[in-house]
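STRUCTURE:
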């Protein structure tokens, strides 16, 4: 029977929207870890000619705020359990990417010196492109995964903390409050771990390290904070559209065990 004759098929709608948001989240996560440290973008500027403000961003940072938008939307509509499950699947996806990067390096093929079996390095000291990407991804993956798990769990829990405190009102508070804090946690963690554990940040060892790390931290955080504030409008619009589309009343979430059911979590 058609949807118009029996009413909207909310269960199917909820499944499709969840798959779409999860796909965007997981795809973005995979892309950002592959791009990672492959290039740094320089957005440095002069503040009214008084002093220069350095702004250096790893290209992998660009899509990262999208992941927090997805977790906030899923937290709002589908609840904490599904948001937490998606975070764990994100970890598995990135380990899957690392597995194939490792396999691609150990299996026989081009890029290896036929005499020694070692990775071929040209006269400029460059390795084949695959090995350059592999090295940068391996170097950043430990840092990004630790920071990712810490920040995403922080984001999900803070989002629901603010939701309880405000009794489901003031979406902008839980959206910005959770993201602003979790992005700070993520930025500090990923920069410190990438440098001190993986040693993959482009720093000048002859210059003070702390000052250079602070540039990377505030550059990444200012970018993420700006995006977090800008996405308040889109998340309001998305929730305003998706609640009736998914058959949700104010204060309701989709039941974590069944897409066909809803549960009241706060007073409307």
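SEQUENCE:
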């Amino acid at each position: 029977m058609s949807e118009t004759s029996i009413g909207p098929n909310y269960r199917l709608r909820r499944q499709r929207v969840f798959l779409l948001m999860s796909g965007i989240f997981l795809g973005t996560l995979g892309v950002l870890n592959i791009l990672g440290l492959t290039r740094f973008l320089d957005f440095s500027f002069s503040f009214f000619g008084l002093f220069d403000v350095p702004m250096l961003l790893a290209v992998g940072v660009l899509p990262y705020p999208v992941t927090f938008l997805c977790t906030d939307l899923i937290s709002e509509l589908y609840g904490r359990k599904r948001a937490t499950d998606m975070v764990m699947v994100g970890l598995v996806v990135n380990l899957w990417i690392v597995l194939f990067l490792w396999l691609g390096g150990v299996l026989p093929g081009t890029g290896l010196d036929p005499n020694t079996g070692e990775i071929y390095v040209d006269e400029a000291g460059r390795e084949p492109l695959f090995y350059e990407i592999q090295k940068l991804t391996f170097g950043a993956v430990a840092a990004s995964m630790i920071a990712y798990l810490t920040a995403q769990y922080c984001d999900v829990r803070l989002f629901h903390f603010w939701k309880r405190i405000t009794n489901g009102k003031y979406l902008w508070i839980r959206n910005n409050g959770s993201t602003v804090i979790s992005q700070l946690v993520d930025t500090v963690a990923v920069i410190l771990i990438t440098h001190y554990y993986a040693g993959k940040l482009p720093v000048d060892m002859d210059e003070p390290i702390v000052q250079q790390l602070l540039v990377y931290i505030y550059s990444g955080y200012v970018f993420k904070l700006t995006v977090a504030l800008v996405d308040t409008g889109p998340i309001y619009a998305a929730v305003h559209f998706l609640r009736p589309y998914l058959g949700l009343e104010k204060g309701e979430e989709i039941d974590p065990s069944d897409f066909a059911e809803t549960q009241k979590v706060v007073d409307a």
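REMARK: The chain has one domain: 9-264.
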